[in-house]
Design brief:
Elements: H1 40-58, E1 63-64, E2 67-68, E3 70-73, E4 78-81, E5 84-86, H2 91-112, H3 115-119, H4 122-138, H5 141-149, H6 154-179, H7 185-193, H8 199-219, H9 221-227, H10 230-233, E6 244-247, H11 249-252, H12 277-280, H13 301-313, E7 320-323, H14 325-330, H15 334-339, H16 344-365, E8 370-376, E9 383-385, E10 389-400, E11 406-413, E12 419-420, E13 425-428, E14 433-443, E15 450-460, E16 466-475
Antiparallel strand pairs: 1-2, 3-4, 4-5, 6-7, 8-10, 9-10, 10-14, 11-13, 11-15, 12-14, 15-16
Helix pairs in contact: 1-4, 2-16, 4-6, 4-8, 6-8
Length: about 475
């Protein structure tokens, strides 16, 4: 340690070189204010918004007979889809539906790009709804930008508060509707009004509501650009014949401002007037004139606004349009572009998809109206009973997949003298799963020791359907 009299060594600090630049590890994100737009593709998008939300919000309120038409009753382990009753044993149908959905996405992406994202994806749909609310309360793009830049005032506070209140109301109603697919929505509504919702119902209403509020109100394009995996692996399904939103660079460049009466050829300019409206209407904030970008969701907003500008300037439409890379490079006509839709990749996807859909429909049509599970009684493999009989006990689960009461007749076969010692008729209520204890006898000593295969045959008296299940009869040594 230095003594008090020892002089301390002073180390000079070198000044920072003037050419050194501090770089942030995180890119500063500017808030995107999408401009409202009207046109052909905008109308299509809003048509799908209305259609999808009528289906989502309306389906839980539909009735089928004496029950909710669409209900996924996890407690009873039964799924009701109009006249169809599905059990956990029907999981193969859900698997098939998921495979068909994935393959449909591959096919549609190969043909038409990310139009699912632009027109029907829930993130896009709810973002459109929340933006519509925002526009009606705060105004269009320029008004919203001025409002955000202005200092806090009563007018700004009141508009922001009203907007947030409406957003929260829509988000909570969305969460309530989502839970209404798993808990009968009328019972859920009565419990909500009486403040008696269960903990899980409450959790999922608020969780799904918060997800809707956050994703559609704040994250918006960040979900499409950074959180959605589809944006990352879409390139594996794209090729040069995939339909995308494209900018006709040969026609539009060099871009530049001019008056309506000016001759672009005399000014050595292309058709693009560099108004940047295509950027202002883009929900992800990209410039389509820079070429194909993974952030583009193919919503067609830039097409609508560009066509409007072309109409005002007296130029032909289509400077920004749906086309393909090959079509743009080769100057193809619409008929040439359409012929390339039926290329090998698309035909293979279509063939596999049609086969899967046909198999799924056939499975649903040929599906038995009831199911049976046979479980041996593990408490006693075999036992001697009165009359010198050897008895095995089984438990049969009879699942009635119809909406009417059914009577089933049970029979057993497979060994000489094998008989059923319990009542053969069983009544099962509509859409009920019932466990039945079944005792099976043979004469002691009539069969060799060991495990012998037997068959249970269950017949539905009304429909005539039959189910045969295998099991074993144990003869002890």
């Amino acid at each position: 340690m230095d003594s008090p009299t020892t002089p301390r060594k002073i180390i000079p600090i070198e000044p920072v070189a003037p050419d050194v630049e501090m770089v942030s590890l995180y890119e500063a994100q500017k808030k995107i204010y999408p401009r409202s737009v009207s046109g052909f593709f905008s109308r299509w998008r809003w048509g799908l918004v209305v259609l999808t939300q009528l289906a989502f919000y309306g389906a839980p309120w539909l009735e089928w007979g004496q029950r909710q038409a669409v209900l996924f009753d996890l407690g009873a382990r039964r799924f009701y889809i109009f006249g169809l009753v599905l059990y956990p044993q029907d999981f193969i149908f859900l698997t098939g539906l998921l495979v068909i959905s994935a393959l449909s996405l591959f096919l549609f992406t190969a043909v038409a790009g990310r139009q699912w994202c632009g027109y029907a994806c829930p993130q896009t749909v709810y973002t459109e709804i929340f933006l519509w609310i925002e526009r009606h309360i705060e105004g269009d793009r320029s008004a919203r930008m001025r409002l955000d830049a202005a200092p806090m005032s009563w007018a700004k506070f009141s508009r922001k508060t009203v907007k947030q209140f409406v957003w929260v109301a829509v988000a909570l109603w969305t969460g309530f509707t989502f839970v209404g697919y798993f808990t009968p929505i009328r019972e859920l509504g009565a419990s909500f009004l009486q403040l008696g919702m269960g903990p899980w119902e409450t959790f999922w209403v608020f969780f799904y509501g918060l997800a809707t509020y956050g994703n559609a109100g704040f994250l918006r394009e960040q979900v499409c650009k950074y959180m959605c995996p589809y944006a990352r692996f879409q390139s594996a399904m794209f090729d040069r014949d995939t339909l995308i939103v494209t900018y006709d660079e040969a026609r539009g460049e060099p871009r530049g401002a001019r008056s309506r009466k000016a001759d672009p050829a005399a000014l050595n300019l292309g058709a693009c007037v560099d108004c940047t409206l295509c950027v202002q209407v883009c929900p992800t904030g990209i410039d389509i004139r820079n070429g194909l970008q993974y952030e583009c969701i193919s919503c067609g907003s830039c097409i609508d606004v560009c066509d409007t500008v072309m109409d005002k300037m007296g130029y032909p439409r289509g400077l920004v349009r749906y086309s393909t890379q090959n079509a743009m490079a080769g100057g193809w006509t619409p008929s040439q572009l359409l012929r390339r839709v039926f290329r090998p990749r698309v035909l293979v996807y279509s063939t596999i998809l049609l086969l899967l859909v046909a198999a799924l429909l056939a499975g649903l049509v040929l599906r038995s109206p009831f199911k049976v599970d046979v479980v041996r009684d593990r408490g006693a493999l075999a036992r001697l009973v009165e009359g010198g009989k050897l008895e095995n006990v089984y438990r049969l689960q009879l699942m009635n997949a119809t909406e009417a009461e059914q009577t089933y007749r049970i029979a057993v076969d497979g060994l000489p003298g094998l008989t059923l010692a319990t009542r053969p008729e069983v009544v099962v209520q509509p859409a009920e799963a019932r466990w039945v204890a079944v005792r099976v006898h043979i004469q002691d000593g009539s069969s060799a020791p060991g495990s012998h295969p037997i068959l249970f045959t269950i017949d539905a008296e009304k429909s005539g359907a039959r189910v045969i299940e295998k099991s074993v009869f144990v003869v002890p040594r």
